[in-house]
Amino acid sequence: MIGLEKFENLISLVSYFKDNDACKQFLKEQRWGDDVVCPYCGHHHCYTRSNGQFRCPNCLNNFSVLVGTVFENTKISLVKWFSAMYLISSHKKGVSSHQLAKDISVTQKTAWYILHKIRSLYNQENSIELSEDVECDEAYIGGSEKNKHESKKTEGTQGRSLKTKTPVFGMAQRNGKVVAMKTKDNKSRTLMPIIKQFVKEGSRIYTDEYIGYRSLVESEYSHSVVNHGAKQFVDGDSHTNTIEGFWAQLKRSIFGIYHFVSAAYLQRYVDEAVFRYNSRKQSESERFQSMFKRSIGIFRYADVKNVG
Ligand SMILES: [Zn+2]
After folding, report:
1. How far is the CA of 72 from the centre of ligand 1 (A)?
2. Are 166 and 140 in contact (CB under 8 A)?
3. 176, 105 Cβ separation under 8 angstroms
4. For range 137-150, the mean pLDDT
């Protein structure tokens, strides 16, 4: 059985996966090895049929290796799917549907569909715990006010209006991982439970002077406030440069690569940026491995079925 670490670049990938059968054989080995497990009832030791499909002796369903994976019911060749996954995981800033369409020779609509399917694999682990020095901050993502036509601008907002932008809340452990999510608003009663869910008690939290963080003073955390208003951006340890670096990366990919992101899909782009950030120290091949494992089952099936 070939290991995923063998694929150090796209050439080695496509020379190994010459056709759909090679891809399916590989999927079977990675997913089950010699013991084929029924995706419907979980029964072990399913039979291989002469047409390459499998049959469960318990629930009597026939199924292919693609059932329950991100590739289920696809009409796109698996070679193109695998190549797309490699390209998406190896480009640090992400790949546009326009670029992916050219790279794997599909229509832009198909490339858009593949990107959204793959983005659904980026669900963040919600059991992650941040500790020690953690920077918290909000970003506002949406139609850029400064690029909008004069008549469509929201009056008196300086671009911070929640009418036109969606708030995203982020927490970054220094020299560690990021957790970030779209939120319904930026009120303290929305942000505090998120902090309590992800940040270990006793950690030091760094924020700007925004009123929504005031209740941190009487909490189980130490709280350092960075006074951006007084241009005191870096005062020893008191800064939020880590989370701001993450926002810069998120905004670069949203505006630079994808150009426009609707509020409905924003969480997927945030998840993608978090995956890229948290895997920044991995090699391309390691990132591909982790994406590949997600594609064959380490995700909730319901999430993938809802992808448009
Ligand atoms: Zn079964």
Report:
1. 17
2. yes
3. no
4. 67
Span from the CA of 60 to the centroid of ligand 1 (angstroms) = 6
What is the CA(56)–ligand 1 centre distance, in A? Answer: 5
- Same-domain check for residues 101 and 138: no
Q: Which domain holds residue 88?
A: 70-122+281-308
Position 300 in a domain: yes
Query: Quick one: DSSP state of residue 252?
Result: I
Q: Looking at the 3D structure of the chain, how many domains does it have?
A: 3
Residue 228 included in any domain:
yes
- Residues 287 and 226 both lie in one domain: no
Residue 78 in any domain: the answer is yes
Residue 52 Cα to ligand 1 midpoint, Å, equals 17
Sheet strands (E) in 102-244: 133-142, 165-173, 178-182, 204-208, 222-226
Q: What is the CATH number of the domain that holds 169?
A: 3.30.420.10
* Among 11-20, 101-110, 166-175, 286-295, the least confident range: 286-295
Q: In sequence order, what are the residues at sequence separation of 6 or more whose Cβ sits closer than 8 angstroms to the Cβ of residue 145?
A: 153, 154, 157, 158, 159, 161, 164
Q: Ligand 1 mean position to 266 CA, how many Å?
A: 37
Ligand 1 center to 2 CA (angstroms): 28
Amino acid letter, 222: S
Tokens read off for 125: 């682990």
The reported pLDDT for the residue numbered 210 is 86
* Per-chain residues with Cβ under 5 A from ion ligand 1: 38, 40-41, 43, 56, 58-59
Around Cβ 16, how many Cβ atoms within 10 Å? 14
Q: Using the mean position of ligand 1's atoms as its centre, give its distance from the Cα of residue 44 in Å.
A: 8
259 and 169 in a common domain: yes
DSSP 127: T
The whole-angstrom separation of Cα 178 and Cα 243 is 8
Q: Are residues 138 and 274 in the same domain?
A: yes
What pLDDT shows up at residue 226?
Answer: 86
User: Rounded to two decimals, what is the model's pTM?
Assistant: 0.79
